[in-house]
Amino acid sequence: MRVFRIMPNLPVADIEAAKSFYTDFLGLTNEDFNLGWVARYTSPDGEAIVQLVTRDATAPVDSAVSVHTSDVEEAYADAQRRGYEIVKPLTTEPWGVRRFFVRAPDGTVLNIAHHDS
Question: Do 69 and 117 meet the contact criterion of CB atoms below 8 Å apart?
């Protein structure tokens, strides 16, 4: 599996209430997307990234990080071969992301994802 981005998923009660801290204070002024329950903010140079999450809309638990990979099917098969707990099966979401959740041996839940665009 080739990983090209790992970003934190920070739990917040209200994205709009939390937004100004990350955009104004930290300077993550680019809102890449906002689905109401998850929003991504990046620095103008794209080097710093954070996702704010109120509650994952389609998963049984929230993930601590999102890991973007070039081949999510291969990553899913590899996680199964290794016997890792799949928390959310491989799914194509309505917003165009193909992803699954896996629990690391330390208990951390990771969102392994691939964006078509």
Answer: no
The predicted model scores a pTM of 0.90
Q: Where are the beta strands (DSSP E) in 12-103?
A: 30-34, 38-42, 49-53, 65-69, 85-92, 97-103
What are the pLDDT digits (tens) for 2-49?
898 999 999 999 999 999 999 999 999 999 999 999 999 999 999 999
Residues 56 and 63 sit within 8 Å (Cβ to Cβ): yes
Report yes or no: 31 and 49 within 8 Å, Cβ to Cβ: no
Check residue 28 and report its DSSP letter: -
Q: Are 69 and 113 spatial neighbours (Cβ–Cβ below 8 Å)?
A: yes
The sign of the CA dihedral 20, 59, 33, 79 is positive
How is residue 74 written in tokens? 């291969």
Pairing relation of β-strands 49-53 and 65-69? unpaired
- List, for residues 51-82, the tens digit of each pLDDT value: 999 999 999 999 999 999 999 999 999 999 99
